[in-house]
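Long-time lurker. I teach an intro course on protein structure, and each term I like to show students one example going from raw sequence to a predicted 3D structure in C-alpha cell notation. This year I'd like something fresh instead of my usual example. Would anyone be willing to generate the C-alpha cells for the chain below so I can use it in lecture? Attribution to the forum is fine with me.
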Amino acid sequence: MENIEIARVLRETADLLEIQAANPFRIRAYRNAVRTIESQTVPMRKLVEEGANLTELPAIGKGMAENIEEIVQTGYLGVLSELSEQVPEGLIDLVKLPGLGSKKARKLWDELGIESIEDLEKAAAEGCVAELAGFGTKTEERILEEIENFRTNTSRFRIGEVDDLLSPLLEHMRTVPGIQRIEVAGSYRRRCETIGDIDLLALASDSVKVSEGLVGFSGVDRVLGSGLTKTSVVLRSGLQVDLRVVPADSWGAALTYFTGSKEHNIKLRQRALEQQLRVSEYGVFEIPDESLSDTIGERGLASEGKMVAGDSEESVYEALGLPWLPPEMREDRGELTVADANQLPNLIELSDLKGDVHMHSTWSDGRDSLEKMVQACKSRGYEYMAITDHSKALAMVKGLDAEKLSRQWIEIDEVQSRHQDIRILRGMEVDILRDGSLDLEDELLDRLDIVIVSIHSHFRLERLEQTKRVLKALSHPQAMIFGHPTGRIINRRSPIEIDIEEILQACAEFGVAVELNSNPSRLDLRDTHLWRARELNIPVLITTDAHRTEGLDLAHYGVEQARRAWLTPQHVLNTRSIDDFLTGIG
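-- Reply from a regular --
Happy to contribute to a lecture. Here you go:
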C-alpha cells in the first residue's frame, strides 16, 4: 500500500464517521493523519517494514499508528469495514460532491433513502431533492451538474497521484531479470494534468518474465489479460496499466507512437506518406509500391518495404526530416510546422527558476516557520523568495491584518539579517472580496514587494458578476499577480464561471502577471490558457503555493505544464535575476 492509498482509506473512514455524527475529535484525528501521510516523502510501508515508531510523526497517536500498520500489512482497515456495515459506503461519493458535505449526505440518506450517486441523480432528476429543507431548486440543479463532473473526473487520475502510484511499480519492474529498459509513454510522458491509463514499454530478453513480473506486483488488483507481448492489469487504486514488450529495432518507433497524441500521430503518418514512407509502432518503412495494401501483417512488416528507422525516437523523426520533439509538445498544436522550419522553442527547464514567490508560513495556514521556508528555498539554490500569507478575510486560516502583517515584516527583517545570500521579499496573497475590492489597505499594499490577488470565496457567482469582480481587482494599481486564476481543484472543484479571455486581455492591459500554480491538484492556469497568455505577452510566474517546505518540490509540475504551452524562460518572470524580476513585476 502506497501513501496515497493509505490516506484514501483513512479519509474514507473520517467521512463515514462524520456522516455518523461521531466524536469530532476522533474525526479530526483521522483527517490530521491523512495530512501527515500526504506530506511524507518516505513511503509509510517502508517505515512499517523497518519497524519505525510511527507515533514520532506529527498527529499520529498509538491507535492511528496501529491503523496504518493494519492497512499496510493487510490492505484494508477493520474500522472502515465495520463502518461500511453501519453506513452505506456509497455515501462517501456524495460527500465528495462540492457543496454537499456529510450533514447533507446524512439528511439525503435519512429522508430519501439515498445511498449512492445513482440514487441521488434519480432523486434530483425527479425534483425530490429540492423539496428537502436546506436544499431548494438551485441546489438540486447544482447537484446534477456536480454529478456529471464527478463521473468525468473519477475516471482520471491527477498527474501527482500517478507519480506516487507508478514509483513503486517501476522500482519493482526494474528488478525483473532480463529487463534492459522500461519507459512510461502516453499522456503521462506528455505530462498531461490528468491520466486515464498507463502505457508501459519494456525492452527485455524474456517477455514471459516481464509479464510475470507485472502480474506479480503487490499493488495489482486484477489481471485483464496476459500474453507474450502485452499484459494489462488494474492496480488497487483503479489505475489500468498496459505493458508492451518491444523489440530493440522497434523501440524508438513504439515510444514515439505510444507517446504522441492521436492527432500528432496522424500528422506524422501523413507526413510519412508524402515521402513514400510508412510509420507505425514497429518502425519507419519504405513503401515499395503505391498500390500496396494497407493490411499490416505480423509485427506490421509483412506488407512493408525496407525498414529505414525505428530503434530510437531520434531516428524516427530524422527519417521524416524532423528534429526530435519534446514529449510535452506532441499534441498537434503546430509542432511539426515549427520543427520543419527549425524554429522549435527552447522550452523552460526547472533549473531556469531563480525564485518562488508564492508560499505560506505559520503566520497563516502554513505548517513551517518563516525561517524554515527561507532555509528550504536556499537549499534549492534560489536567489529570492517571498512569503505570501493570507489576508484577514480568511480568518479561519489566521489571515493577517495590518497589525499582524507589520509584526511579520519585523521577523522578515530579522531572518534576512541571518541569510544575506537570498533576498526575502515582503508579500501577501490578498483576497479579492465579493465586490472586487482588495482585502488590504492601500497604504500597506504600497509597501509590499509582491501582491498576489486571489479568489478564495464566492466561487458560485454567475459568470458576468464573477468576471466583473475580477476585472475590478485587476485594475487596482498594486495588483501584481493574479493567483490560481480559475480557482479549480482538479477532480474536486470545478473552475469558477469566468470569461477567461476577457480576464487575460485585462491582465495584458493592466500589466498584471498570471500565476501558474504548480500544485498538481491545481495546475492553474491550464496549458491552453497559458498558451493564450503567451500570445498576449502576459508574464507568467511559476510558483508552488507551498504550505510546508516539501511543497517547494512541486515546482517541476508547473514547469511541465508551462512546457505544454511552449513557454520559454523569457515568458516566465521568476527565471530572471532579482533586479530584473522586480522591474518586471513592478
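Some talking points for your students: Residues 291-302 have pLDDT under 50 and may be disordered. The longest strand covers residues 423-431.
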